[in-house]
Every structure is written in structure tokens, then in C-alpha cells.
Amino acid sequence: MGDDDWTPQTQAAQALGWTDAETGAVVKPLHPSTTYLRDADNLYRRGRQYARADNPGFDQPQALLAALEQGAEALIFSSGMAAATSCFLALRPGDHVVIPEVMYWSLRAWLKSYAQEWGLVVDSVDMSNLDAVRAILQPGRTKLVWIETPSNPLWHITDIAAVAELAHGAGARVAVDSTCATPVLTRPLILGADIVMHSATKYLNGHSDVIAGALVVRESDDYWQRICSLRVRLGSVLGPFEAYLLTRGMRTLFVRVQVACANAMKIALAMQENPHVAEVLYPGLAHRPDHELAARQMQGGFGGMLSIRIKGGERAAIRAAAAVKLWKRATSLGGVESLIEHRGSVEGAESPCPMDLLRLSVGIEAAEDLIADLEQALKGG
User: Fold this and answer.
1) Is 52 a catalytic residue?
2) C-alpha count within 13 angstroms, C-beta hemisphere, residue 208
3) pTM above 0.90, yes or no
4) Is 373 known to be catalytic?
5) What is the CATH number of domain 3-250?
6) Quick check: is 104 catalytic?
7) What residues have CB less than 8 Å from 24, skipping those under 6 apart?
8) Where are the domains positioned within the chain?
9) Which of 28, 173, 187, 202 is labelled catalytic?
10) Which end of the chain is more exposed for a tag (fewer CB within 10 A), N or C?
11) Residues 232-262: pLDDT tens digits?
């Protein structure tokens, strides 16, 4: 029985079962070298030349990610932004791309500024409206449709299979930011996507101590080779120690995500009953408009991210965030510790994020402690 026969949870826990052949160590060693020896005849028969192109420490996390997403190949990057922007930089000036109206704000800002200045034509659309998606596609000119599901910070769900069918009919590729779903809950490549992106800083690493990104492709083609080349030429590679930590983090991915999902559901249900909360945004709640789609597309849970809108508006939301004792007031998500953030303050005036919204990244603490802390903070501390 080889690693191809193992369940994804076992593949992650074992990190594909790789060991060090020379020493028998169950954890692969770090390789900090920045350069590699040539053979006497000036060739590189061992396959390594320079660390900006590759490092032995990349092999295991890339192979594990490809296995978990059931893709052909994977690449790890120096950040989620480096991974995501490579998908767009691999296109040609004049190409048309379609993005969601609600998505990670830093990437949206980059696309609306630099990417357009560079020559890409960028349109945004409500990805839940398939008629609107169909109408905005330009057959032969649209080259990439970018999906983020669940979408940050409103946690809308996009039907990956349906959008992929429309995009492919117009001759476009589909890329999915699956950072918050993780391969534990959703595998976009199986649903028809061509490439999946992760901000590996978040759930894949899971310990708030690594900045990293990752791409996994369904089929290695010329577009993928341009992305591979961009990683080398732009120098957006991960350090060997960070690659080691990323592998370590992925070994506990399933247990962390499962606990976070269970905690998030308990918190969402509790916040629904809280008199200081106007609305809970979480796809796991049965009354949410995209709950049925989420239940079909997300297997085993609805994620560890939710948002709550606070009665009393922006000032009340900021006041509640200031009063927490257990939750940490910080940006980012997907770590073992729970984080709370007044997201509108971060995203600014052009954001679709309501100013009464608090974004919650649920960790693996006891749910009752997290709920009690939110309740006392919402009451005014």
C-alpha cells in the first residue's frame, strides 16, 4: 500500500511518508545552501543549480500539496500575493480577466492598479450570478477567471463547477483562491478549475510563523511553465527554513481545520442568538442563501472563518473588538489562535466590507471560552 492509496488525512499526517534515506530520520533535513556543485564536465546532473530556482526542501511540500489537491504539479512561493500575482503576470498585455466583486483586498487593489497599468483588462462580477458571469465573458479574449470561495470577508460561496463550465466555453482558464476552504474541505481541480491558489501563510502552515504561497495546477502546460519561469526570474521563492515549517504545519492540517470548523459552527449559532449582533455571515448556517451550495461543495465542514455585524454600527464594532480578552486583535487568519479584526478599517473606503463588521478567524481553543469572551465584549467588557 503506497501513498497513492492513503486517504488525504493520512497523506498529510505522514507528509507522504518521506524519510531521509541517508540517516533514516523521519523528518527530512534542511538544505540552507544557496548554490550547488557542477560536475567536472560542467553539467548539473543532480538537478540543482541555484537556490533562487530550486531547493531540495521544496520537493516534499510541493509533492504533498499536489497530492492533496489531486493536481499534476505544485509550486511554493514567498507569499500568497507572489503566488496569486504570478497567475496574472503569466498572461499577456491586452488579455481580459474576470474577478469577483468580493475578494482578498490586497489582490483586488493590485489588479485594479498595477495589473491594469501593465495592460490587463480587469472586470469584476458577482460570481454567484451565473447570468452575469456569462455576460461578462469575452470569448477568445477572456484568458482567466479568478474565483475566491468562500470570499473574504463576507464568506459568499461560488459554484466552481458552474463557473468553470462557462469560462471554459469562452476559452478561459479558471483559478480558485481556496485559502479558506483548504484541500480538507474543497478540491477545486476536481470541480473543473485549472489552478488553485493558497496563501499558505494561513491554514496550510497554521501557526502564524511563516509567510508563504502555493499554486497547484491540474495540467502542466505552457501557461504553467510561464508561471514556473516567473518564480525563478522574479525571485519569489521560499526560504528553506520556511519550507520546512510549511511541511510541518501541513502534517496537522486536517485536525486543525476540523476543530476550527466545529468551533466556528458553535460560535455562529451562539452569535445568532446574541442581542448585540445584527447578522452572522457563515455558510454553515442553514438560512444563508448559499448554504446548500456550500454543503455540496465543501465536504466535512464550512470553514473556520465567519463575520458578525454589530448593532450600533462602526463604533460599537470597534468597541467590542477592543474589549476581547482571549481573542487576539490582529490581521491574518488560519492559525491555531483565534483572531478578531474590524475589517473595514483595513480595507478602506472602496471595500465592499460593511463598517459594522468584525471578521473572526476561529482557532482550536475551547469553543465555550471563545463564545464567553465574545459575549462579554459585546456587552461592553
Assistant:
1) yes
2) 13
3) yes
4) no
5) 3.40.640.10
6) yes
7) none
8) 3-250, 253-378
9) 202
10) N
11) 999 999 999 999 999 999 999 999 999 999 9
